[in-house]
Amino acid sequence: MSQLTIANRYATALFQLALEKQAVTEINADLDEVVKVFETTPEFVSLLASPKFSNARKKQIVAETFAGAHPLLVNTLELLIDKKRIDEVSNLAIRFKALAAEAQGYAEATVFSTRALTDQEKDEISASFGKLVGKEKLSITNVIEPSILGGVRVQIGNYIFDNTIASKLQGLKRTLAV
C-alpha cells in the first residue's frame, strides 16, 4: 500500500471526527504547528521512530510537546506511533488541509513573486484565480522567488498559472532558437 494511501486514510478519519466535533479550523491550525515542529527538528522525528523508547514513552513525549493541541490531533499522533507511521504526519497534514479546503469552499494556493504581496494583491489574486478553479476563495501562501524576475506564478493543486517574466523569456528563447 502506498504511503499516500495510508496518510489519506488517517487524514480522512481525522477530518470526519473534526467535522463531528466542529473543530476543523482548530485542528487545521494545530497541524500547521505540528508539521513545523517535525520539519524543523528532525531529531524529534528520529526519537519518535526510534525502537530505543517504548511506545508509552513516545506517546508521553507527544502529549507533553503538543499539550496545547486539540485532543483529536494528539490522539491521532499517538495512533501513528502505535502503528509505526509517525513519519506520515506531513502527508496526513497535506491531505487534511485539502479536505478542509474542499469542505469550506476554498483552495490552498501558492503564489510565487519577487516581493511580498500586499493584502489587496492577495485578495485580487484570490478572486480572479479562485473563479478559474471553481472556488469561492483561495488561501494564499506567498513565496518570494527573485529568479522569476517579475510577474507571478500561481499554483493551485495541480494547476499552475505562470505569468512570469522568466517564463516569457524562456518561451522567447525557444522561439528564437528554431
From TrEMBL:
It is a peripheral membrane protein. The keyword Cytoplasm does not apply. Keywords: ATP synthesis, Cell membrane, CF(1), Hydrogen ion transport, Ion transport, Membrane, Transport. It is found in: Cell membrane; Membrane. GO terms for molecular function: proton-transporting ATP synthase activity, rotational mechanism. Its main location: membrane. GO terms for cellular component: plasma membrane; proton-transporting ATP synthase complex. SUPFAM superfamilies: N-terminal domain of the delta subunit of the F1F0-ATP synthase. It comes from the Bacteria. The keyword Transport applies. F(1)F(0) ATP synthase produces ATP from ADP in the presence of a proton or sodium gradient. F-type ATPases consist of two structural domains, F(1) containing the extramembraneous catalytic core and F(0) containing the membrane proton channel, linked together by a central stalk and a peripheral stalk. During catalysis, ATP synthesis in the catalytic domain of F(1) is coupled via a rotary mechanism of the central stalk subunits to proton translocation. This protein is part of the stalk that links CF(0) to CF(1). It either transmits conformational changes from CF(0) to CF(1) or is implicated in proton conduction. Belongs to the ATPase delta chain family. This is ATP synthase subunit delta. It comes from Ureibacillus yapensis.
